[in-house]
């Protein structure tokens, strides 16, 4: 109870009074390459737009729907006048084969990777299984995010050994950044009592769907801590960021009352 109270105190304080640095943040990204998953809308789209303003050499929009990706690309170019290579690559985080294909494409085609922002995520209260046999939120938010992080790590590591892309640019460490959520502090994680954790998490009968999103975000955080300690992560900044509550499409599948939606709209 005490933990929940202190969470809400911090959450509302940050939500109402913290000032994001926003578009005045400036880093010299000349010659660098970035990718953002789930970048056709919401936070990923805002991040990709911000990166485009900083004019890296290459920016990859990793999206599950090419058409939505192309629309996002046009909008980013219109807003920022981005002059580099802006590419739309398909990636379905609910499909391990797609994650592997995406990573292989990156490892084969990219000469460097300065930032991988693993942002794609879902929140819904309906039980659904992927074709790979995992509860969907668990696969998208945690398992595939971890898999993609591990598969991209060698490329990020290799980038630490390269010279800065331009003599005048700084030697900045490559980043592997996962979009987390402070909601992880609210997770009850009732499935923890099962003997086989993943099997228990994957059982509809034992699943607490209302707090599943929080649980997947808590697991992504655990996972990121593990990944950060791997030898392959040496020299790479591995971190989790939290946006607090933002207006996005994340609640599209949640059966929120009009009043709840109104409140969310007011504080975002
Ligand atoms: N909004 C908030 O207040 C908030 C707070 C804390 C953390 N977050 C986190 O921020 C991240 C972005 O969320 P958002 O709020 O920006 O939500 P959003 O507007 O719904 O964006 C989610 C993005 O993830 C993509 N995505 C969903 N399932 C995917 C899949 N199977 N494969 C590939 N991409 C997939 C979506 O693509 P489609 O458009 O094709 O579905 C979309 O581009 C999430 O990780 C979320 O947990 C959000």
Helix content: 40-55%
Ranges where pLDDT stays below 50 over 5 or more residues in a row are none
How many domains? The number is: 1
CATH names the topology as: Rossmann fold
- Which sequence of SSEs, written as H and E, runs from N to C? HEHEHEHEHEHHEH
Order of strands side by side in the largest beta sheet? Answer: 3-2-1-4-5-6
Strand content: 5-15%
CATH class: Alpha Beta
User: Count of DSSP helices?
Assistant: 8
What is the CATH architecture descriptor?
Answer: 3-Layer(aba) Sandwich
Shape: globular
| Cofactors, ions, other ligands | NADP nicotinamide-adenine-dinucleotide phosphate
Distance between the termini: 25 Å
Q: What would you report as the Rg, rounded to the nearest angstrom?
A: 19 Å
Would you tell me the overall average pLDDT?
91
Summing up helix and strand content along with how strands pair, one would put the structural category as alpha/beta
Instruction: Please provide the count of β strands.
Output: 6
Query: Biggest β-sheet: count, sense, barrel?
Result: 6 strands, parallel
InterPro entries: NAD(P)-bd_dom_sf, SDR_fam
Pfam families: adh_short
Keywords: Oxidoreductase
Protein name: NAD(P)-binding protein
